[in-house]
Each structure stands twice: as structure tokens, then as C-alpha cells.
């Protein structure tokens, strides 16, 4: 029978775990463990053991299943095996890129843990109170698996507050520089681990960038360019690329990255994408390639409607800017916008555009960010490649 340090979950909580989703919400914890945040055994209401999980006393997500084997021991060796397994899964990605996600949280059986590799450095995010209790084992396991020169914690993520954790950026081991040069399918760029978005770069679009680099030609437009990563790939085959962003700082970094690659065919434009696309349409500008990779327009479930209208507007205009035979790569990284809603929005935009457009490919996030079917939260990027037929 469970002792007082164990968690007892409701039938609904147990059902969720058995169906492959590692979260148990606070309302499904019938017996709260008499324990500080950390690893606890989990039982159902009949006293049947369900495995071991991370206990976060203050979080809405009270338990996160680590291992469904009741006999498991969650110690340093356990973390070493989990992290080595995740790393082995990235073997193919590591051949093309020196920056990639080593641990994608729940998708790699390490709930609330993110670890991104930038060449010889690691950037981590421990995003639950339960996980924080395992910090030293995790750091040791990362060191054992990769021997990094330094490990940085980007703990400035707002979700940490919901766990009762502080928001800081701190070095956990070694030293971590402010800029790290990385290579992605032959394109070089500088990642900014201390200050850049996410953990320093958008690694999740890597394979879509490489794809667009392969398909690029003629005149290309990269809206929402950030550090220019799509633009740099496009510039390899396109005659000319326009890289647009509303942030001057992002564009300055993009220009540095262009220099790093010896790319002289990129023009940087600081503007609001909505304004730019509208005036480009009015002046009948045409592009062979258009990339739309905006920030998440829907930050909450309540804003999905407004977000879809925003996506529809930029996509409609992007479609109208295409030369016959031109290609649009379009994406949404809003968690709350489903793939079905995204594709519906595209169909509506296509209907409004007055153009005949073919859906060439439905795309998602890079393979080092696996989207587990039973855990929808592991997937957030919806992407599509669309071709203007005439
Ligand atoms: N495509 C990039 C990531 C884009 S992140 C990559 O693969 O790395 C989103 C970018 O959109 C940020 O750089 C932000 O400054 C920019 N942005 C946000 N709102 C914008 C707007 N209304 N117009 C133009 N750029 C915008």
C-alpha cells in the first residue's frame, strides 16, 4: 500500500497516464504526497502502483510521470540512461547541424526538461519544481553524455513562476559565451544563448529552412526574419532575398550572419509585416518564394479567433505576391491553433486570394522536437508549402 510520501491519483488521472500522457492535474490528485517537490511513487485509488513521477506541490500540473515501472529507481544512473537515449535519437540531426534540441521534454520521457545543444555548449530549462529537485543528477548526466564546455540555465521562462520557482539566467557549469557560431545544413549563424529568443535560436524550423533553401530561386521574401535564418538559406539559390522584421536589433544580427556567410544578395527591411505586405500587394510586387514564420499570434486560447484572422491576412497577401509557379512556406507556432484550424485558415485565404493554389506539403517541427501523438503539448509548429499554379 502507498505510504504517506506517495501520490494517489483519481481514475481520470490514472486513465490519462495509461493512455500515454504523463501529466496529472492537481484536481486528479486524490491523495497529495506528504513530501517536498521531487520524485514520488504514484498509485491509483486501489493501491496499484503506476510508477514514479515528478511532484510539484504548487503547480496545476501536480504530477509528471517519469517511469511507469514501479520498480524503477530514479537516480543519477536513470537520468544518464534517459539523456543518452535522447542524444542517440539525434544522431542523424547532428550530422547536418551543430545546434539541435537534445531533450524535448515530455517527448523524450523527461517531462519539463529542455536541453538545446549549441556546438560545445548546452542551454537548459528546468520548468517544474519536481524537476528542480533532480537538478544535480541532470547536470551530471548532461556532462557525462556530451562533455560540454558550459551549461547555461535559461530560467527566465514565465512558466517557472507557476511552479513557485525563480526566474533567472545562470551558469550551471563551466562558462558560456554570449555568442556561439553554429552551422546548420552548411549555413553559419550566431546564436545568442543568454539573450536570444527561446534558448538562443529557433531550432524548431531547421528542416523547413533547409527545405526552402533547396527550393529557392529568383526573388525571395522572408517576413518575420529574426536573425535571418530562413533568408540565409534562401540566399544560397535565390538571386535576391528581402529579409523583413520589425526589430532593428534582430535585423542587425541577421546582417552579421549574412556577412559571416559572405551573402551579398540580402536586403534588410525594418517594417511591420502587415504594413509591408499590404503595400507590396498594392504596388504589384511579385516573388518566387515567400516565407511567413511569424511569432505566436495566439498566446491564449481566448485569442485564437483574432490570431486566425491575423494569419489569414498575411497568408492572403503572401499568396497574392507569388509569381505563377511561386512557393509559399507558411507556419504558425501557436500552441492553441490546431493543425486542422491552420489548414482551414489557409484554404479560406486561398479562396479569397483569387489565385489557384496547391498544397504541396504539410510540415511540422524539426525531428529533434518530436511531436508525440498522445501528448499534444509536444507539438506546436504547423507548417505548409503552397504552390501558385497560375
Ligand atoms: N523565422 C525565424 C523566427 C521568427 S521569430 C527563424 O526561423 O529563426 C518572429 C520574428 O517576428 C521576431 O524576430 C519578431 O521581431 C518579428 N515580428 C513580430 N511581429 C512582427 C511584425 N508585426 N512585423 C514584422 N516582424 C515582426
Mean pLDDT equals 97
For this structure, the CATH topology of the largest domain is Rossmann fold
Sheet/helix structural class: alpha/beta
Shape, principal axes of CA atoms: globular
Percentage of β-strand residues: 25-35%
Could you tell me how far the N terminus lies from the C terminus, measured between alpha carbons in angstroms? Answer: 69 Å
Which strand order do you get reading across the main beta sheet? 16-15-14-17-18-20-19
Please describe what this structure looks like.
The chain is α/β, with parallel strands linked by helices. It folds into 3 domains: 7-67, Archaeosine Trna-guanine Transglycosylase, Chain: A, domain 4, CATH 2.30.130.10; 76-177, Transcription Regulator spoIIAA (2-Layer Sandwich); 203-388, 3-Layer(aba) Sandwich (Rossmann fold), CATH 3.40.50. Helix content is 31%, strand content 30%. It has 12 helices and 20 strands. The longest helix is centred in the last third of the chain and has 17 residues, at 304-320. Residues 202, 205, 224, 226-227, 229-230, 245-247, 250, 272-274, 293-295 line the site of S-adenosyl-L-homocysteine.
Give a short summary of the structure.
Helices cover 31% and strands 30% of the residues.
